[in-house]
Amino acid sequence: MSVSAFNRRWAAVILEALTRHGVRHICIAPGSRSTPLTLAAAENSAFIHHTHFDERGLGHLALGLAKVSKQPVAVIVTSARRWQISIRH
Questions:
Q1: By the 8 A CB rule, do 27 and 63 touch?
Q2: Eight-state DSSP code of residue 65
Q3: 25-28: strand order across its sheet
Q4: What is the chain's alpha carbon radius of gyration, rounded to the nearest angstrom?
Q5: What per-residue string of b and e applies to 22-47 under the rule 16 or more CB within 10 Å gives b?
Q6: pLDDT at 88 over 80
Q7: Looking at residue 54, what is its pLDDT?
Q8: Which domains does the chain possess?
Q9: pLDDT in tens, 5-18
Q10: Where are the alpha helices (DSSP H) in 35-79?
Q11: Which pLDDT does position 86 carry in this prediction?
């Protein structure tokens, strides 16, 4: 199995687990390191997709969606460190 096929398969497995846990909204700040997960999410019609160019802004959007919907919201970002900074402020 190629690395690309392996990454896409794992991305599909992760997204399937998210749907089983009630995630309907997925917030995406696309970047090169998150490409397999972003592509798999874009192809999955089970999610309502939200995109933003800035990870901090996306973090605020995700928190707002979770608060209003009272459901978990998934976030795809390139850097976990940027996400941590966004939810602290």
A1: no
A2: H
A3: 48-51, 25-28, 73-76
A4: 13
A5: ebebbbbbbeeebbbbbebbeebeeb
A6: no
A7: 85
A8: 3-88 (3.40.50.970)
A9: 999 899 999 999 99
A10: 35-42, 55-69
A11: 54
Q: What is the DSSP letter of 73?
A: E
Angle at which helices 35-42 and 3-20 cross, to 10°: 50
- Calpha distance 6→84 (Å, rounded): 28
The token duo for 77 is 């970002």
SS (H, E, C) 4-37: HHHHHHHHHHHHHHHHHCCCCEEEECCCHHHHHH
CB neighbour list of residue 74: distance below 8 Å, 6 or more residues apart: 18, 23, 25, 26, 27, 41, 47
- Whether the per-residue pLDDT at 85 is higher than 60: the answer is no
